[in-house]
Structure prediction request, 978 residues.
Amino acid sequence: MAGPLGTISELRAQLDGRKVSSRELTDAALARAEALEPALRAFVGLRPERARAEAAEADARVARGERRSALEGIPVAIKDNMVQAGEPTTCASRILAGFVSPYDATVLTKLRRAGAVIIGRTNLDEFAMGSSTENSAYGPSRNPWDLARTPGGSSGGSAAAVAAGVVPLALGSDTGGSIRQPAACTGIAGMKPTYGRVSRYGLVAFASSLDQIGTFTRSAADSATALEVLCGHDPHDSTSLPEPVPQYSQRLSGEISGLVIGLPREYLVEEGVDPAVLQCVREAVAELERCGAKTREVSLPHTKYAIATYYLIATAEASSNLARYDGVRYGHRAANAKDLGDMYRRTRSEGFGAEVKRRILLGTYVLSAGYYDAYYRKAQQVRTLLRHDFDQAFAGCDVIATPTAPEVAFRLGEKASDPLRMYLSDVYTVSANLAGIPGLSIPCGFAHGLPVGLQLLGKPLDEVTLLRTADSYQRRTDWHTRRPPEPA
Amino acid sequence: MSVDAHSSYEVVIGLEVHTQLRTESKLFCGCRVRYGDDPNHHACPVCLALPGALPVLNARAVEFGVRTALAMNCTVHPRSVFARKNYFYPDLPKGYQISQYEEPLATKGWIEIDGEEPGGRSFAKRIGITRIHMEEDAGKSIHDAAANGRNGSQVDLNRAGVPLLEIVSEPDLRSPAEAGAYLRTLRQLLRYVDVSDGDMEKGHFRCDANVSLRKKGAQELGIRNEIKNLNSFRFVEDAIRTEIERQARVLDDGGRIIQATRLYDSATGKTRVMRTKENADDYRYFPDPDLVPLALEAAVVERARLTLPELPERRRIRFESEHGLSAYDARLLSVSRSLADFFEAVVAARVPAKTAANWILRDVLQALKEREQEIEETKLTPEALAALLRLLEEGRITAKSARELLPELVEHGGDPAELVSVRGLEAVSDSAQIERAADEVIAAHPENAQRFRAGEEKILNFLMGQVMKKTGGKASPAVVRDILARKLKA
Prediction:
């Protein structure tokens, strides 16, 4: 079996130095993906022919000296909730059976223009609803560090693929932590940019006001490289931000002296968090202090309402976003329906999995007449308060450091029958989505032999400071270079 | 049984109008707004609600909405919010319609209406506009197996996403005739500000009516019924009349009105219950997170206000005061913006206003009616009509010749002076020729000449006709009359 691929910057140097071709990298990535698939189930589908053709084109451009970007010729995997022209998009749901998109998501257009090679589509919780990838119609992905455990979710396939060295970059989407939590579970970097920083056009919507596309990479420096390609305003997405995109990779000075790190009192309590996880995070903060950063305690007083607020808003939006899967135009349609109502009921009963149904029902309920004010409107008010919490906290600090998840990757099946416990996996991550701020998880040690994630939260559009902080940390530590054992 | 027979009730009507905006493209995507093309020809990922597709607001539609709101004296809100109206139907691809709900584009306006009841009583009043909001149309379901040539229902999404304005009136209307006048005035305004063709037959102007009765003098509103599916002006008035009579019968019999939505069947002239309040849909409106709130700066609204044309009411009044027209003529000429513009352009080309008005209202409108065209669709320019009327004023052509030339100008255009000379239609001004003709006519009709001399003045018209015939209709009638009278009296 081909060994693990290096980071983007390592592969870039090899490609530019003609030590390897994109075609060879792509073959290696495809071979490794296939070899690991029985163990990891990271992928929903590979596209070997097209990937090889794209790689050949990239090689030709490099040979002509027409390199398009730092991602030219780099193999990339895409969470299977971003549409690609001419390819299926499943969202790991039976309801999209047979659906082939006629158009590219904006991020796919950007990756193609950058010369990246798309090797395949990765597994996820159905419609990105979940924290373990167990809600996939294709079965759960597995954590390369321990195949009995979850790689996290919902972008578990992308996290597993990068952690196992199949690809140096995979795209994920993060609605309540679906990039950061799996990154923490698998010991890699997971970046959720500011809401609106990356276009959502072509990202299959779960909760539109929270969804944000981001990256899985081995290093923070690689995240910076990828974000330069992915970010920017898109006229197809009214919620995308018009601000120009900084050259993130040029801003990684390794210098963070004077940086003020906020430590939220509400997040760093022993309650509900594995002490071993908390210990790793404290040590990481101490390391940042040794780099010259200062720390101070901040308060995010409405944190205790974040999970409830999140599950009201996310389910409300999901109930409406998923109404289009009705069997009329594409995807699954129940056979032998008696009438229209019967067709709808049977199509959706057969097509959606249990967690998706649970959220559609919850969301329908919270929007219904008589309950709207008590649930949806109230949740929006609390959301505003949560935003104010962050505004006030960031008045006194540059980044906020927290654990990414309260515990290390849990065993498959451990929480599958207890949705509320599963929802609490997101306790540290959902606030960033509600506030629209950027968040980054990087590995900061091991607890019980499994990776632990440090979450850094930043001011809106201040991805640079997050990346610079994480990069400084990674220059002094080697957690991000640790690799899981090769599966037998 | 008529409403008037139930003089103990007061009729209360509010109307909801949906009008299609005449934008080039749809409200949330770049697809063209066009009818008659193959089904689903104008259907992109946004129209089809494909996974991942997102709406982007059409700025032109917003501009049209603002113009309409200003023409109806509404307050245009600096912030309005698009909301999702959730329900399942095959011609609603997303499973929700993007509309506006809690925060509409504009509120609190009014328009002036006037007209006449069937009994002859005239009315003139101000009708409040509750709100104006923007929304997208749904697609079209085709259930008729014969029409679609296949089993089951078919869906055409060419119409899905076409921009609509919903204009909701206050319950200020008191009769079917007032409802009709309101709709006509509303449509006239929409056409004046050039945002909609207001064509009811094409479904570009649709109306739902809320009707209730209450005891005269009562303050509280009665229980209302909403009537849907009213797709012509006549149906609106007929359906409201039918509903008033139905409610009056129920109340007379001591019954209670049940709040319901009813469908009007134009074939039977009856309404039937579609659904009652108890099983009303819950649309679960909430702000659409795919669209940011619509922000309209005051300066943008003020700019739109400056570009508004003079509206029909003011124009009618000005036509009376400035051009000395009768109220009747002023109203007819201000019915459409293009006709009013045409009239003013003719006057500006040195034609007396009354002459211009007479010719436009009689001959030009007649020609338009025959061709089923609007003035702007013809080749007739105001300059050409003015030139024609000046030739007439100057006695260089007769009214008969002018009338003969008008259809030609409407059909093909051209320069009236040139046409007159090519066709040899110059009025005969050679009095010797007319005198010769008059002598011949008097000689040929001695008895008639005698009758005129005996005081039967009407006979002069017959003799004039004979002279005109001899001169090929090109002699000026006034000149012929003078010459004939002089000769007969000699």
Remarks:
- Residues 177 and 426 of chain A are 6 Å apart (CA to CA).
- The mean pLDDT of chain A is 96.
- Residues 8-262+395-481 of chain A form a domain with the Amidase signature (AS) enzymes fold (CATH 3.90.1300.10).
